[in-house]
Amino acid sequence: MLQDILQIIVSGASIGATYGLVGLGVVFLWLTISRINFANISSAMLGAYLFYSFYTQLNLGFFISFVLSIAVIALYGLGLRAFIYEPIRKRGGGRLEFVVATLMLCTFWLNLIIVTYGALPKPFPPVFGGSQDFISLGGIRIPTLYLNIYLVIGILMVFIYFLLNKTLIGKSFRAAAQNREAAALMGIDVKVTTSLSFILATCVVGIAGILLAPIYFVSLELGGGSIGVKGFASAVLGGLTNPYGTILGGISLGLLENFSTLYISSTYRDIISFSVLVAVLILKPSGIFNWKSKKI
Amino acid sequence: MKKLILIVGAILLIILFPLFTNNMYHLYLMNRALIHSILATGLVFLTGFAGQISLGQAGFYAIGAYTSAYFTVRLGLPISIGVIAGVVLSVVAGFLLSIPSFKLKAFFLSLVTIAFGQIVWMLVINLTPITGGPYGFFGIPFYSVGNNMLSYGQVFWLFGGILLVSVFIMYRIKHSHFGRAMLAMNDDDVATETCGISTKKLKIAAFGFSAGLAGLAGALYAHLAGFLSPEPFTFFESSNFVAMAVVGGLRHMSGGVVGGIGLTLLPEFLRFGGWENYYLMVTSLIVIVIIIFVPMGLGPILENLFRKVFKLKRSNTKTL
């Protein structure tokens, strides 16, 4: 029994951590421009499909495919800023216009993928370990896939920590996030930090897409399923401004999901997690992992 | 006077349209367009006038559709009672959904509405005994008077009448004490509250009204299509409805009608124009372009166009 529970904790936390990564995309944009990109999850789908085409169709090898697909996703982030965010802002469109534009962008990417790759899910190459590979640890089986997810997320968190806290560009990003006008007066180029936030947002979600692909296959599920909403939910649990809180929020969401599958029913799993999201929003809109909302 | 001409023009358009075409598909499509217009009108009311975003409108649509289907098929009641039950139930759901809006704004509220839409969708898929689940709900009766089935043209008149009535009600609300308070709340709800106006009541009313229209649209759709599957009730449909309201123009009476008809017909035009595979892609791109370049929506532009045309004619008759 205890083993089962530990097993569920391991798998729930790993999938939840990727939800957290999807949520990070929301957090980075919210910090700098206080907008929500509802096409956030499309970056995950694009990441998975790009990696799939580079790796299996062009045979470029793991490292090159990974870097190339993330580079393309970064360019997409810049394009998002140049072609969607800036024109709407210039013509006086408010938040709602941005919301609808990004919602439509989500439909656009889904249909583009359907047209180019077809609607059938594609098997993901076993680059993170096959479905049968696992490590036994005191009776608990940890699939290598989950170990790799932890590894990538660990590296990413360290990278983000150093980028935001130890480099000049990270400091200017944090300054602009706290107060745009004051930062601009201090000589910080707000355009650069806005671009950085778009790139960070899309890249992190793209990586999450590549990590989620072995679980959900390279499928439209990644771009239109409930994963996107779970990403928003983990961002909200973390208070929308705290990257580390967001990862924690994602992990707790994953745990909640797996435990409700075990103890209640798998059909009502998503209903339970969405109800928790609504309850948190109503009872504590500033998030439950928001110990330090000012600092990131 | 100008308004009278516009209203008479709209009524004439609705009366004459079915006489022009005998193509069943075109008529069916126009009926869908009217249903979407009813729903988008409610959304214009909620978002444009009262300032509350809802991305879960497909949830109310589903509640209306499945309630009416359940009442008519499983309980054997007449269509009119089924439709009324659908509207009542979605209004109740709207009242419930307005509770989070007392505390939450903008993005947080839209998240709650997304969660609501998703929960309804999951219920539709998983409550197989009531909704038929993924297999669908079959055998929903079509509109009829006595023993005579109505034709698509007559249904078009019925829907057109309902749309006109709902736009008229909305017009009256907008120009009442209540509507002005709502517009004030849209601009600044704290200031409205300090003027002694209960924003809670306004929000409850706005959510209830727009949910009622969405439920009405859903019930009408259920009897028009004859069967229900979970597909028209996904999150993507909700976002489509919001797109209709925004493309039509959020702050204009005609916004819902223009957006509803436009965004229902545009994909079909593209589909028959030889774009079978790409029409949804192109539609979403066109919507993005419209939002970027005409953030006020197409409704006011068309209104101005009409006004100019009518003014020209009237001034001509005067000089003559």
UniProtKB/TrEMBL annotation, chain A:
GO terms for molecular function: transmembrane transporter activity. It is found in: Cell membrane. GO terms for cellular component: plasma membrane. InterPro entries: ABC_transp_permease, BCAA_transport_permease. The keyword Cell membrane applies. Belongs to the binding-protein-dependent transport system permease family. LivHM subfamily. Pfam families: BPD_transp_2. The chain crosses the membrane at residues 6-31, 38-55, 61-84, 96-120, 140-164, 196-217, 271-291. It is a multi-pass membrane protein. One of its GO terms (biological process) is amino acid transport. Keywords: Amino-acid transport, Cell membrane, Membrane, Transmembrane, Transmembrane helix, Transport. This is Branched-chain amino acid ABC-type transport system, permease component.
